[in-house]
Amino acid sequence: MSTERILHVLDQQIETLAREIEPIGHVSASQARFDVALFSTKGTRLRDYLAEIKMNLQKLNQEVVEKRSAQVAFIAERLVAQITAMQRELATQTLRKTHQTPERKSHDNYTRLAETQQFERRLIAMIEDRETTLGQLATFADQQRVQKELAALEGRLMRCRQALAKIERQIERQEKGF
User: Fold this and answer.
1) Quick check: pTM over 0.85?
2) Mean pLDDT of the 71-80 span
3) Residue 130 to residues 68, 91, 127, Cα–Cα distance (Å)
């Protein structure tokens, strides 16, 4: 596939994201939505992250024009990861809306368990993604960067699993009537 074609496909994907984000892009979340290793944006709205994606596409186009292949590869990889993360986030919006209903006054242990299990699955997917990427990287600096990301994700996964164990103990105590 030619470089121009790849850029065109990325541009189309970003435009599709922009259309999907428009109705909910202004809504703020209580915390950052993505890992700082993926997005440098500190905002909590989807449109903030979309702006960073668009800026990275502009950088990519500029690097292609200047024929800097190493930078093109790095920015393209980051851009694809950002687009994928944003698509996953959009896919979970319907779940988030159902969890934000007024009936959900008490945040019960079963809901926390399901949410934490979902978070664990996403972390595992991100780790597998990075491990695959690590095997494909050519430069030592890129390998080090991805290894640091992996270490951070593995730390988060460990804490997530500790939280799962704690929630499971709480459910067990709850079911026994303690």
Assistant:
1) no
2) 89
3) 24, 21, 5
